[in-house]
Write a structure and sequence with these properties.
The protein is of the alpha+beta class. The protein has one domain: Rhinovirus 14, subunit 4, CATH 4.10.80.400. Helix content is 20%, strand content 26%. The chain has 2 helices and 3 strands, in the order βββαα. Strands 2-1-3 form a 3-stranded mixed β-sheet, with no helix packed on it. A hairpin with a 4-residue loop joins strand 1 and strand 2. The relative contact order is 0.16.
């Protein structure tokens, strides 16, 4: 490896929206993520809908039980 061209590789903390904290090493220091392996539906087997634009409520209001 050539010297002086690689970024510094230091301790990093990744914080998920669910509260999970992961300590690792990276070129970035502190990162915040929305979904991690603890809360992702693929790993948990549970479906979790994230409705940020209120599309599901809008659909149910328009086409729901009448």
């Amino acid at each position: 490896m050539k010297k002086g061209i690689h970024p510094e590789y230091k301790e990093a903390t990744i914080t998920c929206a669910c509260g999970e904290v992961i300590h690792t090493r990276s070129t970035g220091q502190n990162m915040r993520v929305e979904i991690c392996s603890k809360c992702h539906p693929f790993f948990t087997g549970k479906q979790k809908l994230v409705d940020t634009a209120k599309r599901i409520d809008k659909f149910r209001k328009k086409y729901g039980n009448k």
